[in-house]
Give the backbone structure.
Amino acid sequence: MAEVHHETVWFTGSVQGVGFRYTTLQVAKEFEVTGVVANLADGRVQIEAEGNQRAVNAFITAVEERLHGYIRKVERVSEKRAATFNDFSIQ
């Protein structure tokens, strides 16, 4: 299976209970990305996104721009790996 660009992104701030995951899902529909968005027990939100590097970067940038008022810190880790997801969903 071909490798894809994969990013794991953690958002810290007032990111739970504000529609962050739903908004992220809506933004994902605008890009050719697959993955998942989930609330974490420590209060952060995590996104895992896959696709070509340009699409994934544009998607993450769009999420940051639309939700910037809630985000205090963003951490990103990227890698190339086999595709894991078939669509984009909320966990």
